[in-house]
Design goal:
The protein contains five helices and six strands; from the N terminus they run βααββαβαββα. By secondary structure, the protein is an alpha+beta fold. It comes from Paenibacillus oceani.
Length: about 150
């Protein structure tokens, strides 16, 4: 089960957008303890519908990074890393959940890091796109490598 905030982070959307999707019936969710919770199956169905939009957005972000990127104030180096994984969707979702944990940690090394995850059904692979400081993105890559070895 995901919280609205976790889904928003995972899909690189604002939590208000996710709540609007719930209200409009586009994303099925239930309340637990007064907060919306989204089941993994519901998220997979929703993202399956939205994967092409997310994929195109990620492509534009990467192209922008490569052609226009200017490191922010106090940021000398920025990294954009694309990881393709030929693994089952449930395994990729487990990795994405762990990345959400890392992204939500109170860690000054994170800076303005972000990530996107989507499953490419027709290619049967998952794609993770990571942006941030080299040391933080390196930590995420190491975590993905360790989870892949399990």
């Amino acid at each position: 089960m995901y919280t609205v905030e976790e889904v928003a982070k995972l899909l690189d959307m604002h939590p208000r957008t996710i709540r609007r999707y719930i209200r409009e019936g586009k994303l099925s969710a239930g309340k637990v303890g007064g907060e919306w919770r989204i089941r993994e199956e519901e998220l997979e169905m929703f993202t399956g519908q939205a994967v092409k939009v997310i994929h195109e957005s990620a492509k534009r972000d990467i192209e922008s990074f490569l052609s226009e990127h200017q490191p922010g104030e106090g940021e000398k180096y920025q990294v954009c890393s694309v990881i393709d994984c030929s693994i089952r969707q449930d395994e990729a979702a487990r990795i994405a959940q762990q990345l959400i944990v890392f992204m939500n940690e109170d860690n000054p090394a994170r800076g303005k890091a972000k990530f996107q995850y989507f499953y490419l059904e027709e290619e049967k692979k998952s794609r993770f796109v990571l942006w941030g400081k080299p040391s933080f993105v390196g930590r995420l890559l190491t975590a993905i490598g360790e989870m892949a070895e399990k």
